[in-house]
Specification:
The protein is α+β, with helices and mostly antiparallel strands. The chain has a domain of 95 residues. Helix content is 18%, strand content 13%. The chain has three helices and six strands, in the order ββαββββαα. It has a two-stranded antiparallel sheet. The protein has a two-stranded antiparallel sheet with strand order 3-6. β1 and β2 form a beta hairpin. It is globular, with a radius of gyration of 16 Å.
């Protein structure tokens, strides 16, 4: 599958829900079947860490390995179906102005930041630290 840059024909002004997430903050929202979920990088050069779950059964979640095998490609773009750990389609990319998304890296953590950038970077912004409060608001982790 080659990069397939396709701009959405949908008018963002007609969205049923519109929210600008400040950089470095976490957010959680249920998206129903048939709804469109749009991610837009307002400032450029941003990585958007996303986790997708079945709202009715949170044990069913996005699985990069299943997705890669079913797509036959490590990069995602227009038409890619993001698969769950149970082999079900969680969502489909319907428009893409970037053309190449890699979901192999996973969410960064203090440990991976230390390896990538140096030990003194261990305490810099960590995606896992940002996502944890919205996933486990009581402070417990799975």
């Amino acid at each position: 599958m080659s990069a397939s840059i396709v701009a959405s024909r949908l008018d963002p002004a007609k969205a049923g829900y519109d929210y600008v997430l400040p950089a470095g903050e976490a957010w959680i929202k249920a998206v129903s079947k048939g709804q469109v979920f749009r991610i837009l990088d307002l400032e450029g050069n941003q990585a958007v860490d996303t986790l997708f779950y079945n709202a009715a059964d949170p044990t069913e979640r996005y699985d990069a390995n299943v997705t890669i095998r079913s797509q036959g490609n490590i990069y995602l773009t227009t038409g890619s179906k993001l698969m769950s750990n149970e082999g079900n389609v969680l969502l489909t990319i319907v428009a893409d102005t970037c053309g190449r998304h890699d979901t192999l890296g996973g969410a960064c953590a203090a440990e991976s930041n230390s390896v990538r950038y140096a030990l003194d970077k261990r305490h810099m912004h960590s995606c896992r630290e940002q996502l944890s409060p919205v996933l486990w608001p009581s402070g417990t982790t799975a």
